[in-house]
């Protein structure tokens, strides 16, 4: 099914709450360019663009896209790192009427394959040396970013301004596709219409404010959390401030970016916001609003925010990709509450907490959360069965109205606010009792010395073994992680016996994906083995693993050189010294899998993938290799760990 077909099939009736007579997002942006042509619209890296320049550049690129075959019903793949050209490409796709799909080059190739399978992709905007499209037999034409000069595009767009207008594009047409994780199957492309995106953006002024603003987005274009702030900014004459890939990866540089441009608004996922608040650099006092979304916001995070930025308003937004960026909002979270609500629906959206027969549950009772109204996406591209399963007929609206079945558990309190209780698909059964992992995490986060908790369920003996819960916890600011005995005692006050975690692993900071969310796949690799081996140790304050400063003998020097060569191949540079942190040198959760594969190929079975989140330097890895290879050859030393099967690279949701 093409993007056009997906939109037609799912959009056969009017969307409740839609406002067809209001200006489209594209019209609002173009009108703003006419009103304030010289105002700064976009800043990223060394590039700064005014509204008129941005509008003209998007017009120039739109002309090239039309020539390449882009039109309503097709898709434009934006396969670029965060850049001004990527933003121009999104606006150009809107002008043409094609849907855009942002797929950065480091995303799994499965998502690019899914896009080409699910849609009529007219063109890929990407690097000439990008091997991804080149490996696909049916790849569409490549528009090389090296040939796209912003100044030339703007000049071409300005010259064409007096020409005939392009035919209007219906607001029911798809605006974009965003692919969700394929952890439980192939990647799913969520299709969102132009009207649905506009309906999601339109009511946000009540929370974001309307004064002159600088919106800093701590996320990438392939993450839909970017879109509301981006289009609110462009529709109202604000400045959109985007980090480069490096600035987003390195929290100190991100903080300096916020300081340098005096950001007034920050949109960020909670895990990444914790890093920003706990680092030595301080976010600027110019911040008026901080929006957290995409993960659970804890009372401890609210308290940390108020301690560091007392004059900034903290807003907690909630919404799956299928409900168009976010569908509920809590704009006055209380750090003294046991649980931070996800709030109430935005105007135009509806929320229902239902039982398994689609009946509303009572106040305070848990049920599954369903979202209706204008914020329900068109569906999944080329997946009518999955669309029908998750997008269901609504018994609460007019004929043809639909709801999205979120799979999230929630309850509504006496004040009407919604509270999140984890996923229905995170439910496990342990010795006859049903256990919700979200509830275990909430219980741990209720401990005053715990900032964030993520609970992983594993079966050490295979599918037939009894599930075992491992809790990863980070300490609250200024505290140390509680001892397992204390955490177990605390949990007994909140949980049935079957829900008590078997093991507790303290971390200085939570492992994150590229979007700043807790990286559950990486944490699963850190789960201590059932053989009684010690859990991975915490990092030192400087980000290096503890115990790395011992002497280096001649053999270790040889090993260091070999490990350094492997690092250079994985990272793409040879600047890392023996005590540099892998993640600080440009590594991430995906690259650590590559690092493990290279080490395991050279020294099979010598290291486990989970250890590489603890042995984070060349020196530490070389020392471990020296000790274990010596033990394997019969010399004295610690025993070598058992060989483990090499894991396949995994797809990360970005």
Task: Please name the defining characteristics of this protein.
single chain; 654 residues; alpha/beta; Rossmann fold; GMP Synthetase, Chain A, domain 3; 4 domains; 9-stranded mixed sheet; 5-stranded antiparallel sheet; 21 helices; 20% strand; disordered N terminus; disordered C terminus
What does it look like?
By secondary structure, the protein is of the alpha/beta class. It folds into four domains: 25-170, 3-Layer(aba) Sandwich (Rossmann fold); 206-430, 3-Layer(aba) Sandwich (Rossmann fold), CATH 3.40.50.12780; 433-526, ANL, C-terminal domain (GMP Synthetase, Chain A, domain 3), CATH 3.30.300.30; 554-632, Orthogonal Bundle (Non-ribosomal Peptide Synthetase Peptidyl Carrier Protein, Chain A), CATH 1.10.1200. It has 21 helices and 26 strands. Helix 2 packs across helix 3, helix 19 packs across helix 20 and helix 19 crosses helix 21. The two termini are 24 Å apart.
Strand neighbour order, sheet with most strands = 2-1-10-9-11-12-13-14-15
Low-confidence runs of at least 5 consecutive residues: 1-20, 530-556, 636-654
CATH superfamily of the largest domain: ANL, N-terminal domain
The whole-number mean of residue pLDDT values reads 84
Remind me, CATH topology of the largest domain? Answer: Rossmann fold
Q: Based on helices, strands and strand pairing, what is the structural class?
A: alpha/beta
CATH-defined architecture of the largest domain: 3-Layer(aba) Sandwich
Distance between the termini: 24 Å
Separate helix tally: 21
Radius of gyration, in angstroms, nearest whole number: 25 Å
Q: Classify the helix fraction into a percent range.
A: 25-40%
């Amino acid at each position: 099914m093409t993007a056009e077909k997906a939109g037609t099939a799912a959009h056969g009736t009017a969307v409740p709450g839609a406002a067809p007579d209001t200006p489209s997002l594209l019209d609002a942006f173009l009108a703003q360019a006419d009103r304030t042509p010289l105002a700064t619209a976009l800043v990223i890296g060394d590039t700064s663009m005014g509204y008129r320049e941005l509008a003209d550049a998007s017009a120039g690129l739109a002309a090239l896209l039309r020539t390449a075959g882009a039109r309503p019903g097709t898709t434009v793949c934006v396969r670029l790192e965060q850049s001004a050209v990527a933003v121009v490409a999104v606006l150009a796709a809107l002008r043409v009427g094609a849907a855009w799909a942002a797929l950065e080059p480091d995303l799994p190739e499965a998502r690019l394959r899914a896009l080409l399978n699910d849609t009529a992709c007219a063109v890929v905007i990407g690097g000439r040396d990008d091997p991804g499209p080149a490996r696909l037999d049916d790849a569409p034409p490549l528009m090389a970013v090296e040939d796209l000069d912003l100044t030339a595009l703007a000049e071409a767009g300005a010259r064409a301004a007096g020409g005939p207008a392009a035919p209007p594009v219906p607001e029911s047409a798809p605006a974009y596709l965003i692919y969700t994780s394929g952890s439980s199957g192939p990647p799913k492309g969520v299709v969102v219409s132009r009207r649905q995106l506009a309906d999601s953006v339109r009511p946000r002024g009540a929370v974001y404010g309307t004064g002159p603003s600088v919106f800093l987005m701590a996320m990438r274009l392939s993450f839909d959390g970017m879109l509301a702030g981006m289009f609110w900014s462009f529709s109202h004459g604000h400045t959109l401030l985007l980090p480069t890939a490096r600035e987003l990866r390195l929290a100190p540089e991100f903080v300096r970016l916020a300081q340098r441009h005096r950001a007034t608004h920050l949109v960020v996922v909670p895990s990444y916001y914790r890093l920003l608040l706990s680092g030595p650099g301080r976010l600027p006092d110019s911040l008026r609003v901080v929006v957290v979304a995409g993960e659970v916001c804890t009372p401890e995070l609210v308290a940390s925010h108020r301690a560091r930025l007392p004059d900034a308003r903290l807003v907690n937004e909630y919404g799956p990709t299928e409900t168009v960026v976010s569908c509920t909002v809590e704009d006055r979270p209380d750090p003294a509450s046991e649980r931070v609500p996800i709030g109430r629906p935005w105007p135009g959206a509806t929320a229902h907490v239902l039982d398994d027969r689609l009946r509303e549950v009572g106040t305070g009772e848990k049920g599954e959360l369903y979202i209706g109204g204008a914020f329900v996406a068109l569906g999944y591209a080329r997946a009518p069965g999955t669309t029908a399963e998750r997008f269901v007929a609504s018994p609460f609206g007019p004929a043809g109205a639909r709801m999205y079945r979120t799979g999230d558990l929630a309850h509504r309190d006496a004040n009407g606010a919604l509270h999140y209780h984890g996923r229905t698909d995170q439910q496990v059964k342990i010795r006859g009792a049903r256990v919700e992992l979200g509830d275990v995490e909430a219980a741990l986060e209720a401990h005053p010395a715990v900032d964030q908790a993520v609970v992983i369920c594993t079966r050490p003996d295979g599918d037939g073994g009894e599930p075992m819960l491992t809790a990863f916890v980070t300490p609250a600011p200024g505290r140390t992680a509680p001892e397992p005995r204390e955490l177990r005692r605390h949990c007994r006050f909140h949980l049935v016996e079957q829900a008590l975690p078997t093991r507790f692993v303290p971390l200085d900071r939570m492992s994150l994906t590229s979007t700043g969310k807790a990286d559950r796949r990486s944490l699963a690799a850190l789960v201590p083995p059932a053989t009684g081996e010690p859990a991975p140790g915490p990092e030192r304050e400087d980000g290096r693993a503890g115990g790395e400063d011992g002497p280096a003998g001649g053999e270790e020097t040889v090993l260091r050189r070999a490990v350094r060569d492997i690092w250079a191949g994985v990272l793409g540079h040879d600047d890392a010294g023996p005590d540099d942190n892998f993640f600080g040198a440009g590594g991430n959760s995906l690259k650590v899998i590559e690092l493990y594969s290279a080490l395991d190929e050279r020294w099979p079975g010598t290291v486990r993938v989970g250890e590489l989140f603890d042995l984070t330097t060349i020196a530490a890895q070389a020392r471990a290799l020296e000790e274990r290879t010596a033990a394997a050859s019969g010399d004295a030393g610690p025993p070598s760990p058992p060989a483990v099967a090499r894991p396949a690279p995994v797809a990360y949701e970005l």
